[in-house]
């Protein structure tokens, strides 16, 4: 067998072993998981996650996932906890302590602190007879299935199972709290994810930036409005401010003959495509791409009149990574 074939065979075996372990984890979940969820939901404070070594690395990720999905959480390093960071824990918090063996000595002071001050403790370990699980109020047990290296020395299967258990906990809490994409964006304002979750009213132009003219506005004035506002379009409003139509470059070309003798109402396209301010910007991009247009007027469907409250241009979406 060539080196490349050996590498691929090893990789496939590792992934297969971890996939089977995840199936075993799912099959083994019981009422203790629901107890852990309930314990966190009842907490008035935060979830304090702690672990050492690879368990600590996984703990960092679990704390971050909890925090970004509506469950206040942060990671406390057990060594730092023994040198003052125990003061970060308080009544109302819940501790999630992680140790595959359940015997990490660095966790001893943290466990003792939770017992002394009545702070609920969730243990995440593969051994029910371990110190951690004996001290814990609620147990999240992962199956003891060895490691992918074959000799039990390289945390791999155990860390995958721990991470999956943390994700399951975070998402169960998220779903119970009815945590939605708009909530998620509040914790993810940057990057591609933040862009995907942007709402129309996060990106739209409003106020005096809107290119609007009355229905009876002479086209000579409408052209000035289009030019000054710089979007290549103008919205046409009725007497009560209702958006009645839109003037685009296509409308201008179609009415070129005698254009300056006409009014905005003569040239406009009636009943233009609009979008609500609370819609996702990603939806707006899809509409613009589908209709081959470059901008959308924003109309609040909850308003008394269909007045334009904003304008979203495709360039606004492209600037934040959408499109």
Automatic annotation (TrEMBL):
Gene3D superfamilies: CBS-domain, Glucose-6-phosphate isomerase like protein, domain 1. Its EC number is 5.3.1.13. The gene is kdsD. Residues 36-179 form the SIS domain. The keyword Metal-binding applies. It is an enzyme of class 5 (isomerase). The keyword Metal-binding applies. Zn(2+) binds at residue 77. GO terms for molecular function: arabinose-5-phosphate isomerase activity; carbohydrate derivative binding; metal ion binding. It comes from the Bacteria. This is Arabinose 5-phosphate isomerase KdsD. Residues 204-262, 268-323 form the CBS domain. The record marks 54, 106, 147, 188 as: Catalytically relevant. PROSITE patterns: CBS, SIS.
């Amino acid at each position: 067998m060539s080196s490349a074939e050996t590498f691929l065979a090893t990789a496939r075996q590792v992934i297969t072993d971890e996939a089977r372990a995840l199936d075993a984890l799912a099959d083994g979940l019981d009422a203790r998981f629901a107890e852990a969820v309930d314990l966190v939901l009842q907490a008035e404070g935060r979830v304090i996650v702690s672990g050492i070594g690879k368990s600590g690395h996984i703990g960092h990720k679990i704390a971050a996932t909890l925090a970004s999905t509506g469950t206040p959480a942060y990671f406390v390093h057990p060594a730092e906890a023994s040198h003052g960071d125990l003061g970060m824990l308080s009544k109302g918090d819940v501790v999630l302590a992680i140790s595959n063996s359940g015997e990490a000595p660095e966790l001893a002071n943290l466990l003792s602190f939770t017992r002394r001050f009545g702070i609920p403790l969730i243990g995440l370990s593969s051994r029910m007879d371990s110190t951690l699980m004996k001290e814990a109020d609620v147990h999240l047990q992962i199956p003891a299935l060895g490691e992918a290296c074959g000799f039990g020395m390289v945390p791999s299967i155990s860390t995958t199972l721990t991470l999956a258990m943390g994700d399951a906990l975070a998402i169960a809490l998220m779903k119970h709290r009815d945590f939605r994409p708009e909530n998620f964006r509040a914790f993810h304002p940057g990057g591609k994810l933040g862009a995907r979750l942007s709402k129309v009213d996060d990106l739209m132009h409003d106020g005096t930036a809107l290119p609007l003219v009355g229905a009876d506005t002479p086209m000579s004035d409408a052209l000035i409005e289009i030019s000054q506002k710089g979007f290549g379009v103008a919205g046409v409003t009725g007497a009560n401010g209702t958006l009645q139509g839109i003037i685009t470059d296509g409308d201008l070309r179609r009415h070129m003959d005698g254009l300056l003798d006409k009014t905005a109402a003569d040239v406009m396209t009636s009943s233009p495509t609009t979008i609500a301010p609370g819609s996702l910007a990603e939806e707006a991009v899809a509409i613009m791409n589908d209709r081959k247009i470059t901008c959308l007027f924003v109309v609040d469907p909850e308003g008394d009149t269909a007045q334009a409250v904003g304008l979203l241009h495709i360039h606004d979406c492209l600037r934040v990574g959408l499109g």
